[in-house]
Specification:
By secondary structure, the protein is an alpha/beta fold. It has two domains: 5-150, Rossmann fold; 193-274, Nucleotidyltransferase, domain 5. It is built from 13 helices and nine strands. The protein has helices at residues 5-9, 27-37, 58-64, 81-95, 111-119, 134-139, 146-150, 154-161, 165-186, 191-194, 199-212, 221-231, 245-252, and strands spanning 11-18, 38-47, 67-70, 100-104, 123-128, 142-145, 219-220, 255-261, 268-274. The strands form two sheets. The chain has a six-stranded parallel beta sheet, with helices on both faces. The longest helix has 22 residues, at 165-186. It is elongated and about 60 Å long.
Length: 277
Amino acid sequence: MKKTANEIKDLRLAVLIDAENVPRNSLKSVLEEAAIYGTPTVKRIYGDWTSPNVAAWKSALLENAITPIQQYSYTTGKNSTDSAMIIDAMDILYEGKTDGFCIVSSDSDFTRLAIRLREAGMKVIGMGEQKTPVAFRVACDKFIYIEVIRGADEPQKTAKKAQSPKKQTAKVKAEAAAAADRGGRAAKKDEAAENGIPESIVKLIADSVSDIADEDGYVFMGELGNLLLKKQPDFDPRNFGYKKLTSLIRAIGRFEIDARQSDSGNTKHIYLRDKEN
């Protein structure tokens, strides 16, 4: 049976983190993101805690109440956490105390685990860096980029602030000139391209609207969001600088938005249709 939106948010989640393939400063952001989709009832992180490379994790684990699981590196150059995470995941699955899993890693070795958990009826949310192989990303119900949820551009912003005033001024002028040049050509470009939305994403949304539109061409925004994730699990409006799907749709400019009042009058339901069809 398909779960409703409220039921999905109440999911009991097992959050399993691969310390060898996740940046340490992303832990808080990862748990906050997981909380959007359910309640993290199991929080474990796997690594060789005798290694000096992971010694700095201690304070982050205490602050976020994450249980460290020791896994020795038996062979140099091999990721030792994979088997421990997979075994624990299957144990948790058969205990029947969770409704879904959040697998935090950029390693494609967890692809088969994600597939197996979904076969068992579990909701599987993946989190990893943008370098994560596509096989693992599409094996999850939803995949979220760590760079997006923790703001990976902050170090770059800090570096820009450290530049000398003269260099900053020159760069600002150059960027302003480039922006003016782009503005002169923008009238000939598609509105979505102006807002940094790839043509492939516009096509994905348009095709999905066409797939489930009613006789009048309208689609409920929530239903569209579900279909987009089924087609492309790593789809996320935040990847393109928008917090919500509705904001992304509005920026494209191709779709007509219709906000309909609910029968109770307390909420609004958002519908859209493709003006080109």
